[in-house]
């Protein structure tokens, strides 16, 4: 199918992009287009205006800041995945990104776009949530920071305003001696996961975040839980959803299996880091 007609603008500055969005309530930002363009083509989205941010300079940066990683709105998944700095400072980011789609999509799709898109089956929202990261956005009222815990509000729904441009995402770095791991089950590598899990082990603290289990990323605290009980303890804090891709019972079984596996891997990582 062809998209419904829309107006297209390609501003050269962030201020012009914000102004364009403010003038049309039914406008959408276009970043990598890897989620938005299919939605337009299927007419699941029909914005009156597309504000293409690809010409705005300075948004494609990947920088180490306060021991974490700041990823600009035009940094492509592939660039973030290939960054040695990112791998050193927060290895969970490339661990998860290697499961995002395929190389051609990662060459164009942006990590920040994936966060704004807020797909419950996407890898990066759960990584940002587990790490306690944030998204920086700019709108008519200026710049604000949205903590990950307030960013994902429903299926394909983030708290970024319709008149705001996400400028960057901040992923906190890994503390010395801590461990991380990422596991997912998908029908084929690169497909959206049926269930995925990311673990963060810091001293006694054990936390696991899940994608594709509910409408928004879910993080559970498994500190002090015996290894044999990890899966059931996680399930007690989750309500796996039922959809056309998998039943709730199947997702519950994947949670049982992946939780033990991902926590063990994160502990191994932490042991290796000591
Ligand atoms: P776009 O498609 O340009 O935009 C997506 C949405 O976010 C739009 O609503 C847009 O308005 C908004 N947006 C984007 N950037 C900004 C911004 N800076 N400020 C405000 N709003 C913004 N993703 C996964 O996580 N895991 C997968 O396994 C996976 N598999 C895929 C398989 C296929 C076949 C395809 C086509 C895509 C897949 N994706 C997957 C999606 C991919 O990761 C996208 O790149 C990503 O979801 C969106 O990034 P984008 O830059 O392409 O955003």
UniProtKB/TrEMBL annotation:
Pfam families: FAD_binding_5. GO terms for molecular function: anaerobic carbon-monoxide dehydrogenase activity; FAD binding. Keywords: FAD, Flavoprotein, Oxidoreductase. Residues 1-176 form the FAD-binding PCMH-type domain. Its EC number is 1.2.7.4. InterPro entries: CO_DH_flav_C, CO_DH_flav_C_dom_sf, Diverse_Substr_Oxidored, FAD-bd_PCMH, FAD-bd_PCMH-like_sf, FAD-bd_PCMH_sub1, FAD-bd_PCMH_sub2, Mopterin_DH_FAD-bd. It is an enzyme of class 1 (oxidoreductase). SUPFAM superfamilies: CO dehydrogenase flavoprotein C-terminal domain-like, FAD-binding/transporter-associated domain-like. PANTHER family: XANTHINE DEHYDROGENASE SUBUNIT C-RELATED. This is Carbon-monoxide dehydrogenase medium subunit. It comes from Nocardioides soli.
């Amino acid at each position: 199918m062809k998209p419904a007609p829309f107006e297209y603008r390609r501003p050269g500055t962030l201020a012009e992009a914000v102004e364009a969005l403010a003038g049309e309530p039914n406008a959408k930002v276009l970043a990598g287009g890897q989620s938005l363009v299919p939605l337009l083509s299927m007419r699941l989205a029909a914005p009156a205006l597309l504000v293409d941010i690809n010409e705005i300079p300075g948004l494609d940066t990947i920088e180490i800041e306060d021991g974490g990683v700041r990823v600009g709105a035009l940094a492509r998944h592939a660039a973030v995945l290939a960054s040695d700095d990112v791998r050193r400072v927060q290895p969970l980011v490339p661990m998860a990104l290697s499961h995002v789609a395929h190389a051609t999509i990662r060459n164009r799709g942006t990590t920040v776009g994936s966060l704004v898109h807020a797909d419950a089956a996407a890898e990066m929202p759960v990584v940002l949530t587990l790490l306690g990261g944030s998204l920086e956005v700019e709108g008519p009222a200026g710049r604000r920071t949205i903590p990950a815990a307030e960013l994902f509000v429903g299926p394909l729904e983030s708290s970024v305003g319709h008149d705001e441009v996400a400028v960057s995402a901040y992923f906190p770095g890994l503390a010395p001696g801590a461990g991380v791991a990422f596991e997912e089950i998908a029908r084929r590598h690169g497909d959206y996961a049926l269930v995925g899990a990311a673990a963060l082990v810091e001293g006694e603290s054990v936390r696991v975040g899940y994608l594709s289990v509910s409408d928004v990323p879910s993080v559970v605290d498994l500190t002090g839980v015996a290894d044999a009980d990890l899966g059931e303890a996680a399930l007690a804090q989750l309500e796996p959803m039922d959809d056309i891709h998998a039943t709730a019972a199947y997702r519950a079984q994947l949670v049982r299996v992946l939780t033990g596996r991902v926590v063990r891997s994160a502990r191994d990582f932490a042991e290796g880091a000591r």
